[in-house]
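Most newcomers find our protein records easier to grasp once they have seen one. Read left to right, the backbone structure tokens trace the chain's path through space. Once this layout is familiar, the rest of the handout is easier to follow. The record below serves as our worked example for the rest of this section:


***
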Amino acid sequence: MRWVDDDSRHGAGSCDGGAAGSAYSTIQDAVAAADPGDTVKVCPGHYFGPVSVNKTLTINGPKVGVNGATRTFGGASEAVVSSVGTAEDAFILLADNIKLDGFTIQNSRVGVWTNSGNSGYVVRNNIIRTNVEGLFLNSSGTNPTTVTRNKIVANNNGINDPNPASSPGYGIYSDAGLNNVLISANTFSTNFLGGALIQNCTGGINNGITFKSNRFTDNYSDITIYQNNTNVTIQSNKTFDSRPDNDLQWGSAFYIGAGATNVLIGGAGAGNTLNKAPYSGIAVRDDPQCAVSGLLPAGGVTIANNIVNDSGNNGIDVTTADPSRVAVSNNTLNRNGVVRNDLGFAGGDGIFFGAATNGNTISGNNVSGSGRFECEDQSTGAGTAGTANTWTGNNGVGPSSPPAICP
């Protein structure tokens, strides 16, 4: 056991409870002195990074075990870790199976930086706020990584910098390899560019990413999955956006781009609830984000058993030209595309399939109160009602185009 205490009150009645001078005054000094497998316990106070961890350690703040997602920031009982300037990271994790629990991490370039060559990280019960970027999250996947019960809020420092030090405006950002990870029971709010963006710009393949039971509020886009990701699961999350309905600068709640395959959004008993997405609730597109070769071939995207209410544009919005990529079933969509009067916008749909789509299946959905059409398919082909897709058993209260796809 290694203790860290930033004041001089070592001894009886202090946090560390040890003899005078027995505690380290910086987290980095305690990490350097610790043996692999040790626990470093940090007393309340204000500490500075970067803290570079190159061995397997458990690093506990005074709020260890206390849910960070629901904890109120502030108070003398927190251990606050920041950097001297936003050009430095707070925690840099460079070994397998490091656990980081019970801190407030703020005002740094990256709050928590994880190395793609290691795995088994546990980042839990932290408040990660006002950094340039909250978590730069990467993992080899040899051991499962979990990010759980954190409050990830307003990581927007440097958002207006023409030459930013990192990727400002993201709660979680990953582009160097992320595998075998569970992101669960966190709250993401007011991250200017997004709650989480996952892609692989190294040319490798990300495999096994799960978002479960998170809460998202007022982020640009809540979950964005770009190229070279496979076996992605997004279940039981809730999103809400309180920005004005006519703010065109904000994105879709869930965005699936090119080269993302075997993606499950929802499912029986595990649907997501999306409220007031500024643009579309769930969007599936063809566009990659970073210039790498060898995108994964088109694979399945399943959108099932979700509730999508009051999106600014379309509730479910599919424009990918990859054949037979998307299956949309048993979703409930209410009042999407109703209030978007700016820039001549004519209203949106409950479910929209673009002109290039083909071979997709849309079944058993219930749609009502949409701004333009309950269901719209702009493709042409040998599918339902002259479209290039198959529509069966959908129910629409208002008009659809063509009418037979959502009667």
